[in-house]
Amino acid sequence: MTSIKTKNAIVHFNDKVYKELNSYVKTTNPSNIFILADTNTHEYCLPNFLAQLESGDTIVEVMEMPEGEDHKTIDICTGVWEALSEYNADRKSLLINLGGGVVTDLGGFVASTYMRGIDYINVPTSLLSMVDASVGGKTGVDLGVLKNQIGVISEPSMVLIDTSYLETLPQNHMVSGYAEMLKHGLIQDNDYWNTLINFENLDASKLDQLIYDSVVIKNKVVTEDPKEQGLRKILNFGHTLGHAIESYFLGNADKTPLLHGEAIAIGMILEAYISTKVSGLSPEAFKNIKDGILKTFSLVSINENDQKLISNFMKHDKKNSHGIIKFVLLNAIGIPKIDCEVNAEIISEAFDYYNTLI
């Protein structure tokens, strides 16, 4: 596969990954190499990675963090910063983030702020991080249960996508990443959307190409708008409500936490419904979206009290301005509209409709 150039970095795939990594290490000659992994990728992915890393005389140190969204915190960052300092990391050190979106987001933030910035490389090991979290330079951590409230936009030196790591991934995490791929189709490419929702008819070997296509779509958007002043906001379709739902379920002891993609799938159905009321999405297109998502994702009960509490989380959405909640909606599949204001009655109506599906 042809490597993809981003604004300040490059994404390599499969057969090029370790050749390009080792060439980079040889050329840049980092003073130290640090690898950040979580407990899962340390066990299932790190041995393969280390076997193919040619570090020469450069010292390699491995740092392990707990896995899971609830560990995407400043406290974990502090531990990693302290470890870097303890191992005498300097401005010529390299941090390699080996893991899913939590590791690449947190590790990118750590690298971007340690000594005001050291080089880092993302090696995404989950479908979600391959198609979304590792591309575009968004780094950061959660503030309590509020998603990605603290962070900076800072691109890695390179992104290395080795899809063989997906063999270590549980099925529910594969499904979670699939939600972001569906989103890419809905905001940019009707043909890609139709290919994805008919995925059961495709040979699984075509997944690599679909991952590549998703990275192309996201890269096109973030290259045109790296700081999310306009176009890049379309990547948040399904996320205004989806992130609020994810935060609510994560912070409520009576609820089973949802994976990111599971919450975004709900958010996309709700926001597609809202689109029929606000931005002119046709009923036929909405049915296509709803049915396409529900081929893979299960419905989740959200009662009236849940809805009120979820609405409170929307106040913290990063697209908001001057206290006004802003949505990304759809005019049609592949044609998004940003900065849409939606009244509370329509949001409530969307939840009511969603609950009729259960």
UniProtKB/TrEMBL annotation:
Arranged from A to Z, the UniProt key words for this protein are: Cobalt, Lyase, Metal-binding, NAD, Nucleotide-binding, Zinc
Location of the 3-dehydroquinate synthase N-terminal domain? 63-174
Question: What are the recorded Gene Ontology BP terms?
Answer: aromatic amino acid family biosynthetic process; chorismate biosynthetic process
What cofactor does this protein call for? Answer: Zn(2+); NAD(+); Co(2+)
Molecular functions per Gene Ontology: 3-dehydroquinate synthase activity; metal ion binding; nucleotide binding
InterPro entries, alphabetically? Dehydroquinate_synthase, DHQ_synth_AroB, DHQ_synth_fam, DHQS/DOIS_N, DHQS_C
Upper lineage is: Bacteria, Pseudomonadati, Bacteroidota, Flavobacteriia, Flavobacteriales
Could you tell me what this protein is called? 3-dehydroquinate synthase
Pfam families cross-referenced by the UniProt entry: DHQ_synthase, DHQS_C
Q: What does this protein do?
A: Catalyzes the conversion of 3-deoxy-D-arabino-heptulosonate 7-phosphate (DAHP) to dehydroquinate (DHQ).
Query: For this UniProt entry, what's an example GO CC term?
Result: cytoplasm
From which residue to which does any coiled coil extend?
none
CDD domains in the record: DHQS
Species assigned in the record: Winogradskyella flava
* Record-listed E.C. numbers: 4.2.3.4
